[in-house]
Design goal:
Number of domains: 4
Bound molecules: zinc ion
Number of strands: 11
Radius of gyration: 29 Å
Low-confidence stretches: 474-483
Oligomer: single chain
CATH architecture of the largest domain: Orthogonal Bundle
Structural class: mainly alpha
CATH topology of the largest domain: hpI Integrase, Chain A
Strand order of the largest sheet: 9-10-11
Number of helices: 23
Distance between the termini: 89 Å
Strand content: 5-15%
Helix content: 40-55%
Mean pLDDT: 85
Length: 483
């Protein structure tokens, strides 16, 4: 039977259905409309039952299969849940449980005892389909099975040595989250992986040895100490990476000039600085270290000159604040992060790792936020955005994020959103990050004396005083504010 042009259209979205989802009394449904229908749950307006509502009644409200006369039964043949079937009339969760149990089989038809916790955790996540999608990755499947059969031991080195760092990292985090591996510092592991790669790429053995010494003694030692105290921040590893990269570039430049480090002259440094990007000035750390340890002759390395200090004007800052309040097109959590930046001048590296318990409500309903030790009030209407965000945090539906303490839970289990990700998203929405922070700091020091601003917001007093000076505010009455 030939279909007319109109009959080929999807009955719901009226587009030509490239992929057919289902043929129901109302007509042909495209794949997308079918999926949307088969994932709609609620109270049926026809019969009052609480169930799957794939149909549509005459007023366009979703209804159950019986009220819509849809000739299909969505009940899972295994667990009887009424769901969109994933495969062979079984729901996604039942398919996930079985598939994962197969992968975690130790080879004798049983799952090793400790792995049952991991199995339960992954299967309990609200969206089993995303877990099934993740399990399509052959590397994930191979690693799970290797650990289950004992082909690979369940220790950190198994993940360190894995050829695919991203896959290994996600799995490692799941094992940590479920108490099967001791916690590690992700920032430190990523830095060490990065360093190994950088060192492997340096062909000259002397240059490689020098960079390795610098990285180990100047940076890694300090980072390991910070990590042990639970204080290693992503910003620190980023700065270390930059220091090491420019040091490598400087050594390469010298060797291109046919010089050993010991033959480096002041003119070489000056010329290199003058002919490259301003980031070269960060080589100061390396040069000073190398001079002190007699790898380079005594040389002078100037501080960065003509430091530019980008600042938005206050109108622009207010416009961005207004937009963060009103622009519903942008995801709520990015708007909340933008507000913390624009109201309190918090750097995104700090915003990203804020915890839910830093925000509270007083008895008279005022929203308070703690950055350092003193709670500061969140003025209306910004408090509403933060409260809305608190009840709608993103990424709460992955296996291990149910009880996430983070204000901005990340995609990875147990982690907060990566500061780099927040930076990218806020930049994309047109916010000049450093300019916005500096503008906010200046506005803040005009309303609060620098020491108070510094204490409340966790800044050093020097920074706030500098901004007060630039804002034309010298705080001559400063002393009277001191306790
Ligand atoms: Zn459609
Ligand atoms: Zn009904
Ligand atoms: Zn089921």
């Amino acid at each position: 039977m030939m279909l007319t042009a109109d009959e080929k259209l999807c009955a719901r979205c009226r587009t030509p259905a490239a992929k057919l989802g289902a043929i129901w009394p109302e007509g042909r449904l495209c794949r997308l409309c079918y999926q949307r229908a088969a994932r709609t749950h609620g109270t049926c307006p026809g019969c009052g039952a609480e169930r799957l509502l794939p149909g549509l009644n005459s007023t366009g409200s979703p209804t159950c299969v019986d009220c819509a006369g849809i000739p299909a039964d969505f009940h899972c043949t295994q667990c009887s849940t009424e769901e969109e079937p994933y495969r062979a009339r079984r729901c996604a969760r039942c398919c996930l449980q079985d598939h994962l149990a197969e992968l975690l089989d130790d080879g004798t038809g049983t799952m090793p005892g400790p792995l049952t916790v991991l199995h339960a955790g992954i299967c309990a996540q609200p969206n089993p389909r995303s877990a099934l999608t993740w399990l399509r990755n052959p590397e994930v499947r191979a690693l799970l099975t290797a650990i289950a059969t004992g082909a690979k031991p369940l220790v950190h080195t198994t993940f360190d040595d894995h050829p695919s760092p991203r896959t290994a990292m996600h799995l490692r985090e799941l094992f940590i989250e479920h108490g099967l591996l001791a916690p590690i510092d992700r920032n430190l592991v990523l830095f060490e992986t990065w360093l190994d790669r950088v060192l492997a790429d340096i062909t000259d053995p002397d240059q490689r040895a020098l960079i390795q010494q610098f990285a180990t003694w100047h940076h890694l030692r300090r980072m390991r100490r910070l990590s042990a105290a639970g204080q290693l921040q992503w910003g620190t590893t980023r700065a270390a990476k930059q220091d090491i990269s420019v040091a490598r570039d400087l050594l390469r430049h010298l060797s291109d000039q046919g010089k050993l480090p010991s033959q480096c002259r002041q003119a070489d440094i000056d010329h290199w600085l003058a002919t490259g990007p301003t980031t070269r000035s960060t080589a100061r750390t390396f040069v000073r270290w190398a001079v002190k340890n007699q790898h380079l002759p005594a040389l002078d390395f100037p501080y960065r000159t003509a430091e530019t200090r980008p600042v938005l004007n206050q109108d622009e800052r207010l416009r961005l604040l207004r937009e963060s309040l009103e622009n519903q097109d942008r995801p709520l959590h990015y708007r909340a992060a933008a507000i913390l930046l624009l109201l309190y001048a918090q750097p995104l590296t700090r915003i990203a790792c804020m915890r839910v318990d830093q925000i509270s409500r007083t008895e008279n309903g005022e929203t308070m936020i703690v950055f350092d030790d003193q709670p500061v009030p969140v003025p209306h209407p910004f408090n509403e955005i933060l409260q809305q965000h608190l009840t709608n945090r993103p990424n709460m539906n992955t296996a291990a994020n149910h009880a996430s303490p983070w204000l901005f839970p990340g995609y990875r289990p147990g982690q907060h959103l990566h500061p780099g990700h927040l930076m990218k998203k806020l930049r994309e929405s047109g916010i000049h990050l450093l300019g916005a922070r500096n503008a906010t700091l200046r506005a803040l020091v005009l309303t609060m004396p620098p020491p108070v601003a510094a204490q409340a917001l966790g800044y050093s007093t020097q920074i706030t005083e500098q901004h007060a000076k630039h804002a034309g505010n010298t705080w001559t009455t400063y002393a009277s504010y001191q306790r």
